[in-house]
Amino acid sequence: MESQDCFDRWEEEGGLVMIGGDVEERREFAAAFIGVTWQSGVPVAVYNRDGVIQVYVDRDGMDPDEAEEFFAFNTEGAYVGKQTPIFVDSS
User: Fold this and answer.
1) What is the DSSP string of 19-36?
2) Most exposed among 24, 42, 54, 68, judged by the fewest C-beta atoms under 10 Å?
3) What is the CA 76 to chain-centroid distance, rounded?
4) Dihedrals φ, ψ of 86, to 5°?
């Protein structure tokens, strides 16, 4: 199953905390979505860290350093419960 198919399925079914406050914003981060893992039987969204940062660069016009700082504080550093997304560094 491709990550986009997995994203579409989970977004449609719900039950997964994804990056973005609404459908449109979640779709902007879909390219960075890798898949789902389970922690203690609970599904958790997995994203490519660099892909999320690139969305901030492309969408919001941030330079890479600004986007990295924004991501570290506002996205990676946010705890939204046991389904808080995790981020994989593939560099």
Assistant:
1) SSSSHHHHHHTGGGEEEE
2) 24
3) 9
4) -115, 160
The two three-digit tokens of residue 83, written as one number: 């389904």
Which residue in 35, 34, 76 sits closest to 53, CA to CA? 76
CA distance 43 to 27: 19
> Which residue carries 């973005």 as its tokens?
20
Beta strands (DSSP E) in 6-88 are: 33-39, 42-48, 86-88
Q: Which two tokens stand for residue 39?
A: 């922690």
Q: What is the pTM of this model?
A: 0.89
**Confidence at 11, pLDDT banded by 50, 70, 90:** confident
